[in-house]
Amino acid sequence: MAMILQGSIVGVLLLLLMLLLILLLILLACKPWRFFSSLSSPSRALKVGDLERPLVLDDANAHGQSNESTRSNDLEGACGQNEGLLHSPRMHDLVYKQRLPSASLQLNEGDSVVLNSDTIEDLSVGQTLRFLSLTERLAEVQTHVRQEDQNPNLKSDLKNDLLQNLAPKAIADQRSCLSLEVISGPSCGLRCSVQPTSASRLPLTIGRVSSDLLLKDSEVSGKHAMINWNADKNKWELVDMGSLNGTFLNSQPISHPDSGSRHRGDPVELSSGDIITLGTTSNVHVHVTSKSESQIPFGIGIASDPMAFRRGGKKLAMEDVCYYQWPLPGISQFGVFGICDGHGGVAAAKSASKMLPEKVASILSDSLIRERVLSQCDASDVLRVAFYQTEANMNNYYEGCAATVLLVWADSNENLFAQCANVGDSACFMNVDGKQIKMTEDHRVSSYSERLRLNENGVPLRDGETRLYGLNLARMLGDKFLKQQEPRFSSEPYISEAIHINQESGAFALLASDGFWDVISLKKAAQLVTQAKERYFEGGGNISEKVANFLLSEAKTLRTKDNTSILFLEFDRKFRISCKVDS
């Protein structure tokens, strides 16, 4: 028995030795230690953790010399296109310094990202991530470089195509001019302009002490708010800097929710026509134009006020939006001037003020249509189609707006013409050769013409009934839900006759929201304009702006209870403005 037991033990040991030998042979064949050594050695790929520094590594041996040279040169050219935007010494105040989540980064073994070492130390985290996206796109081009032996021009074509795709946005970023004008408060009349490429002037600060826009208002903090250019969004952004009395955009607070913390608020996008309120009395009008915008061949003034405390101290949101574009993009002799008065919120007014100029410009981009307007001196079809297209593209079901658009154009002999279209109760009139010409139609339910239309198309209105489904307007843009309930609501615009403007006769045009017309008649408005022009003629400066502010102050004096916006055009040749940019 002992002999048998010893033999069994020896057999088991031999079997184990054979298994160990087989396992050793498998390990030698597979060489698994190479995986551990690659992890411990410097990686050729960008690690997720590297983004936290930020630092971008590259292994010079990972690629051939030609590929590395091409990648570096391409990136260098791409960076050159954006140099004005990415090297602002003060841009870091508004750059979003977020880390990319690990799930969003997908890199394979052997991938690399190259940065010019001279530019790394000037970049913030947000800017470095922006470069990564550029190099990732550049890396895609490298997969095609090997084909250059078959086609010597391919490499150059690919590089040029990529740079053409990257450059336009950066170039477009540099063509936006921001103009600010204080339209009420102790510093009324103060103006300031800046463009995105003015790196030394960004961000633009607004406050009572050592600020770019200096307001002598005791309710304004020393450093109250600032405005900066967001190159990623191609937008100007406003930030409250922890002010004591708060910053409001179109009567909506943008300060930090914890008012006692004095922390900065979140950035909020600015649009042309916005009203910034600092404290309770200082209002700043925002106007955004193209840097290449040519001089407007007439004077223009804008004044606006939410009249926020006219209803027994109740806060009244600003729902008016004023806007203008001269010239329209790509159409040198046409311009659009308008007011949108929102109800139920400002969203519909903002949408319409953005779409209407775009639709008009799109229609007039057809040379045949443009020539017909110039030859026939009539743009009725252009305005009508623009309103139809705007209404069709608006998605505002529970908000709407009145809209008034004045289209002005010049023929080859520099003769000026104007034609107006409107829905709602924001009105426009022109003074030509001493005669007042009403350019709009009142579309309130109480107006005689609208009552006739409503009674002919449905249940007659009762005597004294001035509202339909709670609205005092019968025509408007938006309000899709109400239009589904009541088909008599309409977006059909009234369109005036085209008016020839004699620039030697002191002609002018006045557009205003209903807050103005509620307290001032057309005849009285004409008298006030004449009075204001006589008062400010000797003072110089932009008389049109002074006239607009004078009219606004009269509406305040008469205690209007609604948002009030005024757009005044003086067609005398001596009045000119342009977007003047300080370098």
Automatic annotation (TrEMBL):
<dbReference type="Pfam" id="PF00498">
    <property type="entry name" value="FHA"/>
</dbReference>
<feature type="domain" description="FHA">
    <location>
        <begin position="204"/>
        <end position="254"/>
    </location>
</feature>
<dbReference type="GO" id="GO:0004722">
    <property type="term" value="F:protein serine/threonine phosphatase activity"/>
</dbReference>
<keyword id="KW-0464">Manganese</keyword>
<protein>
    <recommendedName>
        <fullName>protein-serine/threonine phosphatase</fullName>
        <ecNumber>3.1.3.16</ecNumber>
    </recommendedName>
</protein>
<keyword id="KW-0460">Magnesium</keyword>
<dbReference type="InterPro" id="IPR008984">
    <property type="entry name" value="SMAD_FHA_dom_sf"/>
</dbReference>
<feature type="region of interest" description="Disordered">
    <location>
        <begin position="62"/>
        <end position="82"/>
    </location>
</feature>
<keyword id="KW-0378">Hydrolase</keyword>
<dbReference type="InterPro" id="IPR001932">
    <property type="entry name" value="PPM-type_phosphatase-like_dom"/>
</dbReference>
<feature type="compositionally biased region" description="Polar residues">
    <location>
        <begin position="63"/>
        <end position="72"/>
    </location>
</feature>
<keyword id="KW-0479">Metal-binding</keyword>
<dbReference type="InterPro" id="IPR015655">
    <property type="entry name" value="PP2C"/>
</dbReference>
<dbReference type="GO" id="GO:0046872">
    <property type="term" value="F:metal ion binding"/>
</dbReference>
<dbReference type="InterPro" id="IPR000253">
    <property type="entry name" value="FHA_dom"/>
</dbReference>
<dbReference type="InterPro" id="IPR036457">
    <property type="entry name" value="PPM-type-like_dom_sf"/>
</dbReference>
<dbReference type="Pfam" id="PF00481">
    <property type="entry name" value="PP2C"/>
</dbReference>
<dbReference type="InterPro" id="IPR000222">
    <property type="entry name" value="PP2C_BS"/>
</dbReference>
<keyword id="KW-0904">Protein phosphatase</keyword>
<feature type="domain" description="PPM-type phosphatase">
    <location>
        <begin position="299"/>
        <end position="571"/>
    </location>
</feature>
